[in-house]
Amino acid sequence: MSFDLSRFAINQITTPKWSMPEALEGYKRQGVSGIAVWRHFLEDYGVAQTRKHLRELEMWVPSLCTSEWLNVSVASSMSDAIDTNRRLLDAAAEIGAGCLMMVVGGMPPDSKDIAGQRARVRDALLELAPHARKVGVKLGLEPLHPMYAGDRSVLNSIKVANDLCDELGDAAGLVPDVYHCWWDPMFETEVRRAGPGRILTFHYCDWLVPTRNLRDRGMVGDGVVDIQSIKGWLDDIGYTGPFELEIFSELDWWERPPEETTRIAIERCGPYVQQINTRGGQ
C-alpha cells in the first residue's frame, strides 16, 4: 500500500547510526522527503553542506533539534545560552527549518526552586522572540513529560506551553508529542485551543507498557496511545502541518538497521499522515 508522505518527516534521532548524509539519502531512498535535523549531526556535517545536500535532494525540514538548555542560575551563563540559541536560530533559518525545538533544560545545579526556574525560562524565551521573528524561525515549545522536569525540561504541560505561546505571539508555536502528552487530561482541549495555526509540527511515537527506561519509546502501534483518535482531533481543527516520527529507543529501534526502521516507520505512520478533508474521509 502506498501513502502520501508529503507531510511526513523522520526525526533524525530515530536512526542515530546514520550520519547526516546517510540519513538524507536513506530517508529519500524510501520516499521520505522530510527530515527533522538534530544539532550534533548538523554540526558534524556543517550547516552549508547540509543546506546544499537538502536542496539537491529536494528535502524539507520541519524542525531543528534542540536548543541550548536554559538550566542555569548565573546571569552570565543564561546570557551565553541565549546567545547560543540565537546562533541556532540562524542555523535553522539557513537550512530552512520551520522552528527551533526549545528543550529548555531541567533544574539548575543545587536549586530546588522549580517555579523560579520556569520564570527564568519564560524571560529567556521572551528575550529570544525578537531574533526568532527577525530570521523567520519560530520557537517550538514542546512540553516534556513530568518525569523529565528534573534534568531535561521544566516545561511539562501542554496548557503551560499554550499559555507561553499566548505571551510570545507570532514568535512561537506548539509542538505536541504524543509520548509526552497522551496521558494529560487537557491534551485534546489544548490541541483544539491551539488550532491549526499554532501547531508547528506534531510528533508521533508510542508509550510502551512496560516502559523499561527513559529512552524506551515505542514505534507507532506498539503501545497504548490512541493515535487514531488524536489524528481525528487534528483533522477536526483543520491541521495541515507536518508530522514527525521521533523515537528514543536504546533497547530496540536504535539497535536495528536504519533502513529497517525507516521502512517500518513508513508502514506504521503512513495511515496517520494522510490529509483528511473531513473526519472519516479523504
TrEMBL record:
This is Endonuclease. InterPro entries: IolE/XylAMocC-like, Xyl_isomerase-like_sf, Xyl_isomerase-like_TIM-brl. It comes from Pandoraea terrae. Signal peptide: none annotated. The keyword Nuclease applies. Pfam families: AP_endonuc_2 (PF01261). Keywords: Endonuclease, Hydrolase, Nuclease. GO terms for molecular function: endonuclease activity. Residues 31-266 form the Xylose isomerase-like TIM barrel domain. The lineage of its organism: Bacteria, Pseudomonadati, Pseudomonadota, Betaproteobacteria, Burkholderiales.
